[in-house]
Amino acid sequence: MSRRPESERSDWTDLDLLTREEAHGRLLAEIADTDVRLAGLGESDAAERELLESRLRALREAAEDLIDHAQGNGG
Amino acid sequence: MPLQPWMKLLSTDDHLIEPPRLWSDRLPARYREAGPRIVEQARGEGRAPAEVWVYEDRIYPYIGLNAVAGKSPEEFGLEPTRYDEMIPGCYDPKARIRDMDLDGVWGALCFPSFPGFSGHVFLDGKDRELALLCVQAWNDFVLDEWCATAPGRLIPLAIMPMWDVDLCVAEVHRVAAKGAKAISFPENPSPRGLPSFHTDYWDPFFTALEETDLPLSLHFGTSGQAPKTAPEAPFAVTITLFGCNAMYATGDLLFSPVLHKHPKLKIGLSEGGIGWIPYLLERADGTWERHRFYQNVNQSVRPSELFHRHFHGCFIDDRFGVEVRHHVGIDKITWECDYPHSDSYWPKSRAYAAEVLADVPDEEVHKIVELNTRRIYNLPA
């Protein structure tokens, strides 16, 4: 069984994948940003508030799922 | 805000990670051992083993950033990875749709990963019958499983058995009949030991693409020749110069017979940005004006005219390219996301696109993020 030399692996095939930990960190950063945007909304921004609250719920669920899966795998 | 909420972002350059049973579920029993399958490979004491593909007797790992949480960018590194370290959207189409929703992205054209972005790993196959079955299995997975999960959102791209042009022609027609929307191919076949674009070898293949109206998607790096300046040069040099591969492919095709013999052929330059295009076209036209008379090149059509007839490009964050978009051609620009690679802006791709396109009129933004891709790839709204 041979390992292919790196010189032959010259496209991006196996590089640069977004891992769970990096993705989780990005989700936490986006949750924090969204929290700040929500806090800055006035009472007249009901539609925007609804959109952001919906996004926040989806972001939190996605972040929790990544953590749950990592814990389920002993991570 | 030029990027309006009702505009659907369509990415012409994303990637999928092949699930572990893609080939074992599809290959005949006699080929399951030699066909691609996942095995574990040690990564050192106290660490779960990496999961790598074995195809015939060769190993192909997936590589990702090592655990980055709590680390500074100075400590990041790349290493072989395993499925439970990837985000599920890499290999699970339902999870991919969820991640696209979080990202504000409607549609995605996904290139292969283990087979190489143009499927060229199957060129390595010692058993050509197995290699053909592997190519067809990848295409069937994409058409029947991956894209069938969300028709109209996951856009089917197919790979070719590129060691035999007649097999390519047959596969183009087979996947077109099943709903494929694009064909991935090496940006330059010559370094892969295949006939170049300057021969007539690929003519039946290009004719098949014209007949089926399928664009040829050339992802940068698929020639197998990464830009490298010196053995000691850091990988940053290669990353910086990778867009030059798209320039090479464009120059190569513009001065080849291909576009003159195949007037309906559509060519997509995947990844690599767009800001270089006006410069290269000026340079190509200047070369053609001064040097065409003593060379075996077309004498009547300027390279820039050929480009505008045949090519389109894409960008993630090419602010200069957006600034010079009228020199590129508004109708020639598409948007890309590059999920699940870490240089994508997930889960902020839409917000980032809005920022990059902030000074562009609405109707031009709509063409760039959605309408051009619908037109070129035949995607009904």
TrEMBL record, chain A:
<protein>
    <submittedName>
        <fullName>Uncharacterized protein</fullName>
    </submittedName>
</protein>
UniProtKB/TrEMBL annotation, chain B:
<dbReference type="InterPro" id="IPR032466">
    <property type="entry name" value="Metal_Hydrolase"/>
</dbReference>
<dbReference type="InterPro" id="IPR006680">
    <property type="entry name" value="Amidohydro-rel"/>
</dbReference>
<dbReference type="Pfam" id="PF04909">
    <property type="entry name" value="Amidohydro_2"/>
</dbReference>
<dbReference type="InterPro" id="IPR032465">
    <property type="entry name" value="ACMSD"/>
</dbReference>
<keyword id="KW-0456">Lyase</keyword>
<protein>
    <submittedName>
        <fullName>Amidohydrolase</fullName>
    </submittedName>
</protein>
<feature type="domain" description="Amidohydrolase-related">
    <location>
        <begin position="90"/>
        <end position="379"/>
    </location>
</feature>
